[in-house]
Amino acid sequence: MASASSCAIRCSRVSIRCSASSEGGGQGPHRSSNAVRVNGAAHRAPLQVGAALETSINRSLAELSAPVLTQPPPAGVGEERVRQNIPTEKQTVDPFRQALIVEGGVRYQQTLVVRSYEVGPDKTATMETVLNLLQETALNHVWMSGLLGDGFGATHGMIKNNLIWVVSRMHVQVDQYPIWGEVLDIDTWVGSSGKNGMRRDWLIRGRNSGEIFVRATSTWVMMNKVTRRLSKMPEEVRGEIAPWFIDRHAIEEEATEKIIKLDSNAKYVDSDLKPKRSDLDMNHHVNNVKYVRWMLETLPDQFLQQHQLSSIILEYRKECGSSDVVQSICQPDEDSILPQENVSMVIGPLLLPELITGHHSLAGALQQWPTKYTHLLQLKAGDKHDEIVRGRTTWKKKSHKAP
Amino acid sequence: MASASSCAIRCSRVSIRCSASSEGGGQGPHRSSNAVRVNGAAHRAPLQVGAALETSINRSLAELSAPVLTQPPPAGVGEERVRQNIPTEKQTVDPFRQALIVEGGVRYQQTLVVRSYEVGPDKTATMETVLNLLQETALNHVWMSGLLGDGFGATHGMIKNNLIWVVSRMHVQVDQYPIWGEVLDIDTWVGSSGKNGMRRDWLIRGRNSGEIFVRATSTWVMMNKVTRRLSKMPEEVRGEIAPWFIDRHAIEEEATEKIIKLDSNAKYVDSDLKPKRSDLDMNHHVNNVKYVRWMLETLPDQFLQQHQLSSIILEYRKECGSSDVVQSICQPDEDSILPQENVSMVIGPLLLPELITGHHSLAGALQQWPTKYTHLLQLKAGDKHDEIVRGRTTWKKKSHKAP
């Protein structure tokens, strides 16, 4: 298991390098102007959704009351597939998920409403919700493509070759967090990434304003389910997914910055973190959202109350299973404190000293926090520390007072 | 705070008694046959949903691209309400949530799809997901009624009187857990419960089969937001909500069984549980789902792998805030072990003794577990133990092998 995982790390790095080099040529100013045009608000299409809903009614009445399976399902999983309605041919409309395949039949678009249990005490969606929605729409995209074999987005060709998807890198930028009840349009598409990888991008827009709330990109590679080693992409699988590739980037990244490795001397350390049964996903790994929760929970409460996460980059190194014990480490960039308006004006002689220096004090509220942090989750097994995921987060002041 | 909470307990008990007595007359065989008729599969209405979607297209194009506010929103919350589209008049269709108001304009019905992040490793929704969906549809019901003032389902009249909803009892019965991608129809409605309470019921059906997966009922009372004391229902609020009352029960309960109080001598005890920021809901309390997670996590993994929760009853006593430290206590009903087929047949001489008695052993797998458990969450503050919530759970063997 140890050797397989160290291979995974090696291969994963190669894959990230490939992906950066193959995409590098397409980035820069030209790329940027192209992306702005494509990703702009003009892209919002309520009429299209209306038309799709109209189509969906006819479909839902005529077809969707019966399962859309066009081939007999494999024995044993038949009942499950019927209950799920997993199509075996490409669909252009999913009425129940309010989803469409658009743009030459390859880009996935879904409309959804932020649910009450997806927001925090301030009625605003969290980064965890954003990550959940990215996962959800990615899987629904594969679902509608007719390629979904089983499990976590694996295609028929991948299942035949015993392969699963593994994410090697993820970058999420949030301009604005959606609020409870807000209607969102989420777009996602895939592209090539080096010889053996796949890139997946997302845009989340508020339907009322058409503004882009979230931009995200990710890189995926294939892992053999049995050996746990990374795999080349078989031609059969490339044949399945390549027709879906779009050459467009949701985030204009400069040359990909490498995240430094932290050690236990970092400023914030949480040890002995143990995954619970409810933290496991359909692949029986600790899910991505739990990773991010562990990362962010090392930060002081007072910082979290005043700031919101505007960007997160994750570099995945190793799987984490249900019996692992995890350590979460975090180090601020001390030089990332923003120049601010002169706060000394409000600290006048009217304030008692204990208000300024005490617990939950004004001084705490006025403290100038770093806005950039480096993170590491690692496994603890004796003296050995295997890296699970490295992270970089960027924060901004909340615009209103947190409750 | 202590006196307010003890009042809450007293009042809550009164409310539960009232509710039981006022509902008792309506139950029994007559009630039962009525409920079966109303709650049966014939009730499933895909055509209605189709028609609603059709209506919704016209609405969404003509009206819903603009906010549905018909009165100017209060200053300061205007932008938020526009982003959320909270109606100030009763709506009969919510196209984005795929929801309708049916049955004489009072019952709420929503169609939704189980999302990938709402299922566990076995691709099956958990009790936590079920509870989330109950909360979600209840709030959406108030949302569509045009009564939603702000916060967690409080009406305009409640906000004027500084009141919030508090749940005093909840009972959820699960016949079948929905699976990833399954389309569900959820119905919810409210009724009276004693003089000062409200009852809310739910039915969750699988759209493909029309089978009822989940039945749930709950009792709600009003609490003053400032004093934290339970309150009578003001006439103004009764005037708002009484026109929505339906006299029908999703669960046919016998006389409500009282849940006994446990102490720390119980078989399973988890101490020092601390809520995290992400566990708080819009009311700044630890949310219901977290309570249930704490309750169930005291049970042994091996039991949880082999069994699924088929019923849970919760009796709420006291609020739990973000700085509280909680203890979760659980006691099995030793006499609730089900008579099973004779398992000695498979424990033959071919099996090594260590397989039978070791850790993760066959004996463990064959162990006959109790199927009924009593639970208690309590606050720990010195020698004093304030009860947060009592629970009763009933379990059944999973029909297929857990992964």
UniProtKB/TrEMBL annotation, chains A, B:
Q: Which Gene3D superfamilies match?
A: Hotdog Thioesterase (3.10.129.10)
Coarse class of the primary localization is plastid
Q: Which Pfam families match?
A: Acyl-ACP_TE, Acyl-ACP_TE_C
Q: Which residues cross the membrane?
A: none
Q: Which InterPro entries match?
A: Acyl-ACP_TE_C, Acyl-ACP_thioesterase_NHD, FATA/B, HotDog_dom_sf
Matches recorded under CDD domains: 4HBT
Keyword list (alphabetical) reads:
Chloroplast, Fatty acid biosynthesis, Fatty acid metabolism, Hydrolase, Lipid biosynthesis, Lipid metabolism, Plastid, Transit peptide
Quote the SUPFAM superfamilies the UniProt record gives: Thioesterase/thiol ester dehydrase-isomerase
Where does the record say this protein resides? Plastid, Chloroplast
Please state which protein family the record places this protein in: Belongs to the acyl-ACP thioesterase family.
What protein name does the entry list?
Answer: Acyl-[acyl-carrier-protein] hydrolase
Q: Which organism is the protein's source?
A: Digitaria exilis
